[in-house]
Amino acid sequence: MVKRSDLEPKQRLIVMNILQSLGMDVSKWAEMRGGAARAASNPKYCYNWSFLQPGEFVVACLWHESLKQKGDLLYYEIKRGKWTKPRTEPGSGSSNKRANDLDQHLWLAYSEALPVRVIFVDGKQADGTSPSAVKARLLDDTPWAVTDYDLFTGHCRLERGTSPVPINISAEDLELSGFEGAERRKFVIHRRREGRMRREKINDTLRQTGRLACEVPKCEFDFENRYGPLGKGYAQVHHLVPLHKAPPTGRVVKLSELAVVCANCHAMIHAGGECRRLEDIIP
After folding, report:
1. How far is CA 211 from CA 202, 203, 206, 207, 261, in A?
2. β-bridge mates for residue 120, sequence order
3. What is the 3-state secondary structure (H, E, C) of the chain?
4. Radius of gyration of the chain, Cα coordinates, nearest whole angstrom
5. Do the beta carbons of residue 253 and residue 190 sit within 8 Å?
6. Beta bridge partner(s), residue 73
7. Nearest in space to 108 (alpha carbons), one of 173, 153, 48, 61
8. What's the pTM value of the predicted model, to 2 decimals?
9. Could you report the average pLDDT of every consecutive run of 10 residues in the chain (283 residues)?
10. Which candidate among 26, 41, 119, 153 keeps its CA 20 to 30 Å from the CA of 236?
């Protein structure tokens, strides 16, 4: 049985070298004054808390002292307030950006069933008066998985040796993932108030066309046509203007800024927390 103490870092390994050992491309680290000789200390990358190999895995730097163990299970819990104070704008300060990136990467690991490679770090954590000072790092040779992620709070749980499990993510959840910290709570309230506009879009489309066909080019899926009476009057409504560009408290939305879409296209529009154009979904 692997014990918590077995994963305590003892050496000051270099982040860039660890990422290279995992097969990640770190060539951009050398794009700085001093080139390859100073690449490992490139401030654009070396202080980051997480890294993404798209579609393959996430790398997360986690403090060893917060690692927990219960029986044979080693696990880690992240509560957003622990990493940084509530943010007003993404990236407002380097630590905020690193926390935001970690949040987004762990969300991707959860929503896309990606394994997480954990780099445990030891040293002095930031206390609000002085920055963190890492004295040792260790790459855990066993992959982890994000087993739970609360979109409302950003709190999540990682478990060692657990395989990622594909989950069903709604389009609404994918939209919500674009918001960070305290903005999520405001957005949820805004979405509840916005239900009337969505109903109006459905009714307006029925009045104009007599059906609710997906507006994504080359799709035109119609729930009633496919499922009969069961699908009558049903469709999802998509914001053409990305919701994360609106104030957290909401804004006036016009019917022309909404589109009727099917569930599959809506999920693809927002896969990975993005907001893609309708024209770009089906090749």
Report:
1. 9, 10, 5, 8, 12
2. 62, 138
3. CCCHHHHCCCEECCHHHHHHHCCCCCHHHHCCCCHHHHHHHCCCCCCCCEEEECCCEEEEEEEHHHCEEECCEEEEEECHHHHCCCCCCCCCCHHHHHHHHHHHHHHHHHHCCCCEEEEEEEEECCCCCCCCEEEEEEECCCCEEEEEECCCCCCEEEEECCCCCCCCCCHHHHHHCCCCCHHHHHHHHHHHHCHHHHHHHHHHHHHHHCCCECCCCCCCCEHHHHHHHHHCCCCEEEECCCHHHCCCCCCCCCHHHEEEECHHHHHHHHHHHCCCCHHHCCC
4. 22
5. no
6. 70
7. 173
8. 0.62
9. 94 95 93 89 92 91 95 91 37 64 86 91 81 91 92 85 75 58 55 66 90 95 90 86 59 80 90 85 93
10. 153
Question: How many residues make up the chain in this entry?
Answer: 283
